[in-house]
Amino acid sequence: xxxxxxxxLNKQAVGPSDGAQVDTSTGSAADVEAxxxxxxxxxxxxxxxxxxxxVVSCILAAFSLFCIYVTLFANFLEQVRMxxxxxxxxxxxxxxxxxxxxxxxxxxxxxxxxVLMLLGACAFFFYTFKAHDILNMRxxxxxxxxxxxxxxxxxxxxxxxxxxxxxxxxxxCVAVFFIIYTFANGKTLSRTAYEMFYGDNGILxxxxxxxSKYIVVFIIFGAFLERTGVSNFFINLANAITGRxxxxxxxxxxxxxxxxxxxxxxxxxxxxxxxxxTIPMMKKTGYRAEFAGAVEAAASTGGQxxxxxxxxxxxxxxxxxxxxxxxxxxRAILPAVLYFLGIFISVHLEAKKLGLKGIDPAMLPxxxxxxxxxxxxxxxxxxxxxxxxxxxxxxxxxxxxxxxAILVGVISNIATYYRTAKEENRSADxxxxxxxAVGMNGGFTVKSIFESLEAGGRSCVTVAVACGIAGVICxxxxxxxxxxxxxxxxxxxxxxSMLLGLVLxxxxxxxxxxxxxxxxxxxxxxxxxxxxxxxMGVPQIAAHFFVFYYGIVADITPPVALAAYAGAAxxxxxxxxxxxxxxxxxxGAFIIPFVFAYTPSILFIGDVAWYMMVLNVITAVLGxxxxxxxxxxxxxxxxxxxxxxxxxxGGLCLIFPGILTDVIGIAxxxxxxxxxxxxRGKAA
Length: 684
Prior knowledge:
mainly alpha; 31 helices; globular
């Protein structure tokens, strides 16, 4: 790659300033894989070797090419496009995920998996080839014909089994509950099967429609972007900016994970990818194992709320709300900044409290040396420009960005060739540059393109399956009218208290979001929880941001804190303690959504004077400082319980806009800060 390799901190001890011994051991790749196979369904895959591996890889890559072609050029019926997409997902899913966790024999595909794969794929392909007839048939004919009912039941059951394997039980249990509720409300098997399989509000509803049209192309784009080396660039950039300061590696983890998580779209995957580099750095600096794993997990989870990608949920949100995509990412900027600011302040105060040093500046990359590698950001820049300009469709913008990513990979190869020639004091020639361009000397090669297509296809499976099951949940809610009953129940319990209603909705979102991928999480929240808030008077956009945030933080909220467990595996820390610490660090994600509900101006909703907006931003930043300091128990010196309560209370007052609350908040923070500063001076 053109940019420097990540730092090797074995060359220098950067532990606590008092010379205390710290445990710098980290989990091996096998340890991390074992934990991921235990807690994360996506990591529990079949093992293919030799010719079968090549065949499966070709199928996954071909699926990616098919998706790109269909989204750009095909003029299929929506039903044809979605059912063919889901049929291929069924095939790839059973080729990728075994029936149970544990050791899987290489090149093993049991007969019952073959049967399930064929039955499920044929059910969806049956709809593909009979779409015109089905659309022209009368409802009574569909409901009384046992063939159509059988096909629908088989398709739903096989999709549910694949969901159990690839996504996990939480979302499946929710779907089963809603299906049972549908039967309990008098719906027959044939009617339910029709609504869930053939109707527009079931499997083939908005989640799968958006997934097959937009999300899949952006997932493939992310796979290409990762292979250009942009992750290493982000890590080196974060090192250059913050590495030298107190507790620098933790600050590097916050910045790099925010940037990388924005692209990857997976909090667990990003925790493993960037955590393998940042967590060892943090432990060598002197951070506890649980704190190091928690920082990485909290920052990686926050990548899902980081514009412009937002774990691909931004595209779903734009479709649900009927607003331009650019409208969503602009509103997401300030909350995301506040979230990461809270984590950044927490790691800084923790470093000060422990007396931790930064990294020797001599070991850090210089910003000037990274400027020549900024071309790695070109695919992201092109994507953002095309999408925000509204000159092209989102899927076309993603396809163009994929081509730009390939071009960047070629440029990176040539730049590396000339840089290496210069370092070795030899002359570079045109022939060598041509060989470098096609990857004959390593770097981004034709094989990298194939691997990107393969990785994109594999990543699409879990998202598509989760969206399909989310569609079943949404369909049951629509058919039974449960949404209105749920709204009435929450409103009735909360009475006239918006706060109580928001708290109840928060718990619903966290429970429903446990162990569920980002896009499916949002689909469920948008159908079940967002209407509750809208009924209570919360603006529509604010309501959708509220439920999205709480669905995302389920990844770090015990007991099902998958991202925290992944961070604990790398750091060799206690999983539950890591989850609790990650929740504390990500406290901003638990506070900011309430601000959405009470003062939507933080999302740039409504007519707010620019100076009031600036004031709200400043007070919100000060509020995050107060809350972070109160939770960490340190500002200029260690705090007692009274000081911590005053800081947390003052911070909350500042986060919620209002003249009175701002005055109270500033007074409380100033009082504690002056007292802390005076006490530190006396001690010195």
